[in-house]
Each structure stands twice: as C-alpha cells, then as structure tokens.
UniProtKB/TrEMBL annotation:
It is found in: Membrane. This is Ion transport domain-containing protein. Keywords: Ion channel, Ion transport, Membrane, Potassium, Potassium channel, Potassium transport, Transmembrane, Transmembrane helix, Transport, Voltage-gated channel. It comes from Triticum turgidum subsp. durum. Its main location: membrane. InterPro entries: Ion_trans_dom (IPR005821), K_chnl_volt-dep_EAG/ELK/ERG (IPR003938), KAT/AKT (IPR045319). It comes from the Eukaryota. It is a multi-pass membrane protein. The keyword Ligase does not apply.
C-alpha cells in the first residue's frame, strides 16, 4: 500500500494536477510545459540530443580537423540549445506541493538558476570559434574534450524514458527494452571511440591495439577505423575476446581494466532488467490464465447472460471439467 500511495502522490497526482491546469490562463509571455507547440520543440531537441550523443565521442576520437560543413552544423545545433536556455526562463513549472503551474517569472528564474543553468550553459558554449584563435582548424584535442560536455544533454532522454514508463498510453515493456538497447549502443559507441583515441595519441603507432593488426591504420578510410573500433568494443563487452585485437601498451591496458569493470555493472544491469521484464510478463500471463476460468464459472453459476460465443464456453468448460 505504501508503494501505491507513493506512486499516486509522486506520479499520478502531479500529472492529474498539471492536466487540470492546462486550461488555466498563464501570464503573458509564460509558456505552459503542456502546450502542443512546446511539445514539438522538445521533440525536435531530443533528435538533436541523439545526434550529439553520437557525433561528439566520434569527433573526439576520429576527427582531428573539423570541416567547415560540420563546423556550421555544430554551431547551428548549439544555437537551438541556446534558444532553449532562454525559453526555460519563461517556462512554467509544476509545484509538487500545490500541484499548480507556477507562472511567476522570478520564481521560474530562481528555480532554473539554482538547478541546471550552469551545466546547460557549459554544454552549449561554442568552443570551436575560440579554438580558431589558436588553431586554424579549431579542433585541437583540448577543444574536442570540452565538446564532451555536450553529453550533459542526455539528461533529456533520461527524463523522457522516465516519463514514458509511467504513461499508460505507452507499452511499458517496449519503452524499457528501447531504453536498455539505447544504453548498450551508447556504451559500445563511446568505448570504441575512447580506445581509438588512446591508440591515435600514443607515440608509437605500432605498439597499439589497432596498429598491431593494421600497421598503416591511419591511411585507412574513416569507415574501416570506426568499424574496427566498434568491433573491439563489442567483442570486449560481450566477453567474446577473439584475441585478434588486444591491448599493447600500459595506457590501453589501464583503459581495458576500467572498461571490463564497467562491463560487469552494465551486464548485471541489462540481465537484471531483462529478467525482471520476462518474469513480470510471465506472471501477468499466468495470473490471467488462472483467473479467466474462475470468471467464466462464476458467470455460469449466477446465470449471467453475456455475449460470448458458445464454443468458448464449451472449450473452457471441457478443459476445467465443468458439468
């Protein structure tokens, strides 16, 4: 009962209160978080978050020189998140004590400044233009590392999955499986990029995990190098370990140790969640099968007339030995 009460107060009641407040007129220039146009804007930003999650680890590892097209795209993406920072100062929020939408600009600003404002700004600052002052390509290792702050945007995806898991209009198992797959793919992508970065910055290319297998790997195409890195990541994550790609120097050994320890937690998390989903699905099916014959028997005993095909009555009755 305590769990049900917590779910009601923490999830259902705020949602019901927010829905009830949608029809309340807010102050001028204040945006409702449930406005359809703002929802579209949030969805668009989520697409950009997925792009950021892929491009910035990839750029850190594989792109020493940033092309002007990618430079332009990244600054456009950053500008959208900068706009969102400004909009957040005009975005009403739900008070979890009164379950009313707060549209006071001062309270909205104070709440945002005391929470995620600093991190949002740090993840939106365009570091490449500053890098151009010292490097003609503007994509040195230091600036590429600062770009990893963009991964802070992933909190939006985490909040989205948390919200969808509690939404009865969506299939819980589908949302949960999508989240687990997304976490796994992101871990594979990041580990592949990091291990390649370690090899690419090592003084002796021949004494690296990829240099031992492909001596002139830097002359290979970007696609070949990326696929090789992802191949290493997957074989390590799944503990397959074919032995064709392995650590060759202390830097790579140290990273492999950390990655394998991380794999222990990630594998336990994935297996635990998948087992929980399977067990819950099996329990629901078993309970349904056990309850259905008792329900039909109660209908027969009380001579309740329902519009159910006769063959279904006969089949259930025969299987359960009714007379």
């Amino acid at each position: 009962m305590d769990n049900i009460s917590n779910i009601f107060h923490n999830d259902l009641l705020p949602s019901l209160g927010a829905r009830a407040n949608q029809s309340i007129k807010l102050r001028k220039f204040i945006i409702s978080p449930y406005d359809s146009r703002y929802r579209i804007w949030e969805t668009f930003l989520l697409v950009l978050v997925v792009y950021s999650a892929w491009i910035y680890p990839f750029e850190l590892a594989f792109l020493r020189h940033l092309s002007w097209k990618l430079f332009l795209v990244e600054n456009i993406v950053n500008s959208f998140f900068a706009i969102d920072i400004v909009l957040t100062f005009f975005l009403a929020y739900l008070d979890h004590k009164s379950y009313l939408l707060v549209d006071n600009p001062k309270r909205i600003a104070a709440r945002y400044l005391s929470s995620w404002f600093i991190l949002d700004v740090c993840s939106t600052i365009p570091y490449q233009p500053f890098g151009l002052l010292f490097n003609k390509h503007g994509n040195g290792l230091a600036y590429r590392t600062l770009n990893m702050l963009r991964l802070w945007r992933l909190r939006r995806l985490s909040a989205l999955f948390a919200r969808l898991e509690k939404d009865i209009r969506w299939n819980y198992y589908g949302i949960r499986c999508t989240k687990l797959i997304s976490v796994t793919l992101f871990a594979i992508h990041c580990s592949g990029c990091f291990i390649y970065l370690i090899a690419d910055t090592y003084p002796d290319p021949s004494r690296t995990w990829i240099g031992a297998a492909i001596p002139n790997y830097r002359s290979e195409s970007l696609w070949v190098r990326y696929v090789t890195a992802i191949y290493w990541s997957i074989t390590t994550l799944t503990t397959t370990g074919y032995g064709d790609l392995h650590a060759e120097n202390p830097r790579e050994m140290s990273f492999c140790i950390c990655f394998m320890l991380f794999n222990l937690g990630l594998t336990a998390y994935l297996i635990g969640n998948m087992t929980n989903l399977v067990v819950q699905g099996s329990c629901r099916t078993r309970n349904f099968v056990r309850t259905l014959p008792n329900t039909f028997q109660a209908l027969f005993c009380h001579t309740v007339i329902v519009d159910i095909p006769a063959w279904l009555y006969i089949r259930i009755g025969i299987r359960n030995g009714w007379k």
